[in-house]
Design a protein that fits this description.
Order of helices and strands of chain A: HHHHHHHH
Strand content of chain A: under 5%
Largest interface: A-B, 26 and 20 residues
Largest sheet of chain A: none
Radius of gyration of chain A: 24 Å
Number of strands of chain A: 0
Shape of chain A: extended
Largest sheet of chain B: none
Oligomer: heterodimer
Structural class of chain B: mainly alpha
Radius of gyration of chain B: 16 Å
Structural class of chain A: mainly alpha
Distance between the termini of chain A: 59 Å
Number of domains of chain B: 1
Number of helices of chain A: 8
Order of helices and strands of chain B: HHH
Chain lengths: 247, 83
């Protein structure tokens, strides 16, 4: 029986190895780029869209509709997490004892959170000039709130990062993204097509309406991640302290 | 292929192996963020800074955080049942 199994595995493995070698041998040379789209995009982005960062131009303008789908995937994921983790949470906020007591940790952590938040806004605002943009900046915004939890623990976090704050931010961002596409319709343009002045390349005010789409997606992403974090955190607090009230 | 690129590829291959071989879930989550960092280096070396930023925020912040809090949730539940 084992022999038969090994024989079968041997045949399969040999076949797989042959296919792999064949496939790898047929790959184009290292570093050679055969697709035409990359070359075309890097040529037309600057004259057409006045954006220095071609990646952001593709994400929020040429393929803006694609990105909307990705945005809504995150929205659905955050909603699903919120829905699945809706266990009865019978703990009282006053029962929770913050584990972090050191003033130095509080101070350094809050300072780090502020610096991270500023960095996030920088990443979002310059998304169409330098690497970065709404998605990356949005996650960094959420990360700065998590830093508040790490440094000042639950009470401070519950005040600023609760779902009652994150949910409207997320919905507003996702809604604004779709709404901007509809505004393009109102101007008689294609979905998410630029309807604003394109501005001067390499300036902060450039890129036209894609720059606003960029900010909308930053809000949606930041809100989405905050909802997910907050739900998990409240769940953990419920597991840790949920029984205190019942006793 | 310049040497830096081969080093970056080897670095992430070793990282992926470590993640698979780790048995403890918490250790696995931490190793995963290290592996994610090796991918970030790989993307930077291959001149894809936008992808590197996304990989940095997702594999460095978002994914480990969700993993660790999910693990904490499960551990807490087990502790509660034992009591």
């Amino acid at each position: 029986m084992t022999r038969l199994r090994y024989t079968l595995f041997g045949i399969g493995a040999l076949g797989l190895a042959a296919l792999l070698v064949w496939g790898v041998a047929g790959l184009p040379d290292f570093g050679r780029y055969a697709g035409p789209y990359g070359d075309i995009v890097s040529k037309v982005v600057e004259p057409q869209r006045h954006m220095a960062n071609a990646v952001t131009a593709v994400v929020f303008d040429y393929r803006g509709f694609d990105t909307m789908g990705e945005e809504l995937i995150l929205f659905a994921a955050a909603s699903a997490v919120a829905l699945l983790l809706r266990e009865t949470r019978d703990y009282h906020v006053d029962d929770i004892v913050d584990a972090v007591r050191s003033d130095a940790v509080h101070g350094a952590g809050v300072l780090a959170a502020i610096v991270t938040l500023l960095l996030a806004f920088d990443v979002v605002a310059h998304g169409f000039l330098t690497p970065g943009g709404g998605f990356q900046g949005g996650v960094v915004i959420a990360a700065s709130f998590v830093l508040v939890f790490l440094a000042a623990e639950y009470h401070a976090y519950a005040r600023i990062g609760s779902t009652s704050f994150a949910e409207p931010v997320e919905s507003f961002g996702a809604g604004a993204y779709v709404g901007l596409g509809l505004i393009s319709f109102a101007f008689g343009l294609a979905f998410l097509e630029n309807f604003l002045d394109l501005g001067v390349t390499n300036r902060l005010r450039s890129g036209g309406s894609a720059a606003i789409v960029n900010w909308a997606s930053a809000l949606a992403v930041a809100g989405g991640f905050l909802v997910i974090f907050a739900e998990y955190l409240e769940e953990n607090m419920a597991v840790r302290y949920g029984r205190k009230q019942l006793r | 292929m310049i040497p830096l690129q081969s080093v970056a590829i080897l670095f992430s291959a070793a990282g992926a192996l470590c993640v698979v071989l780790a048995r403890d879930v918490i250790r696995q989550a931490i190793l995963f963020s290290l592996y994610g960092f090796s991918l970030v280096v790989l993307f930077v070396v291959y001149q894809a800074p936008d992808v590197a930023l996304s990989a940095l925020v997702v594999s460095g912040i978002a994914y480990p955080l969700v993993l660790v809090s999910a693990i904490a949730r499960v551990h807490g539940e087990r502790k509660r049942r034992r009591e």
